[in-house]
Design brief:
With 225 residues, the chain is of the alpha+beta class. It contains six helices and eleven strands. It has a single domain, classed as Lipoprotein localisation LolA/LolB/LppX (outer membrane lipoprotein receptor (LolB), chain A), CATH 2.50.20.
């Protein structure tokens, strides 16, 4: 029996996955210090910030594992990520179901397989504006706001564990764990756990830092580098 992927991924995950993405991406390109309660993590955070400040753009590949309590095996996705600071993003799933999320300034596009692209404007789309505002808080280093929203602790030499303080976010995110590369300080593994036991694990690899990326990559669904 062939399982339709649209039936496998719960509605709650589909609604909140974009927010998951931005929480992950924000850690890739700006200081994740967020006024950490555990001050022992600050040397690692300072190092991440110093490395991130040198990266204005990057591309990479990723593999995403979606572990659902209802299924014995994880659902595997593959994709590509392109980013230019501070507001250009292309998050693309290449298989098993092609889809793309694009952001360029206050404009965006969502593309799903063979369906027509859906264009949106952050100034008039309250859902996507909320997602973008979450991103801008991190990118603008609004530590006072971040301190109100998150707790952060260090595990080992290069791992951070982030826990939401606000109940609205804690209702669908229990923890976000980020393993950074010892050399580049770019994320290698991001693991998002949910209160109901579901888990999303994203492996990032094949980074290209400070690459030249064309503007059309962030406004046209079918464009590749």
């Amino acid at each position: 029996m062939k399982i339709q992927m649209s039936n496998v991924v719960p509605d709650k995950f589909k609604e909140n996955f974009v927010l998951y993405i931005f929480l992950v991406l924000s850690l890739m390109v700006t200081k994740s210090a967020m006024a950490a309660e555990d001050r022992s993590v600050l040397p690692l955070l300072d190092e991440i910030q110093a490395r991130s400040a040198q990266v204005q753009s990057f591309s990479c590949k990723f593999t995403q594992e979606r572990h659902l309590t209802l299924f014995a095996k994880p659902i595997i996705f593959h994709g590509l990520l392109f980013l230019i600071r501070p507001d250009h993003l292309r998050w693309e799933f290449t298989d098993p179901i092609p889809s793309v999320l694009l952001l360029s300034g206050d404009k965006g596009v969502r593309c799903n397989d063979n369906a027509p692209p859906v264009h949106f404007d952050l100034t008039s789309d309250p859902v996507m504006r909320l997602v973008a505002e979450q991103l801008w808080i991190w990118l603008d280093s609004n530590y006072e706001k971040l301190e109100q929203m998150y707790s952060v602790k260090q595990q080992g030499d290069s791992t951070l564990v982030i826990t939401p303080k606000e109940q609205a976010m804690a209702d669908f995110i229990a923890t976000i764990t980020i393993l950074f590369s010892n050399e580049s300080k770019q994320p290698e593994l991001v693991e998002i756990t949910e209160p109901d036991g579901d888990l999303t694990r994203i492996h990032f690899h094949d980074y290209n830092l400070n690459v030249s990326l064309p503007e059309k990559l962030f406004v046209e669904c079918g464009i590749r580098e």
